[in-house]
Design a protein that fits this description.
Elements: H1 5-11, E1 19-20, H2 21-30, H3 35-43, E2 48-49, H4 52-60
Antiparallel strand pairs: 1-2
Helix pairs in contact: 2-3
Length: 62
Amino acid sequence: MQTSPIEVQKALKDMDYPASKEKLIQHAKKHNASKEVMQVLEDLPDQEYTNAADVSREFSGK
């Protein structure tokens, strides 16, 4: 099952950027993200994300 960039962004609502991959994962967990969203975040490159668009760019490349 796949998830959409919209679902990923919902899970990251109110995220403070810049943020590391680990912080994105922690934030999504706190907001009860779905397994699919968590998998997307786990698969992201381990880097600093300056904003939600950065996350979407990496995600849409999959």
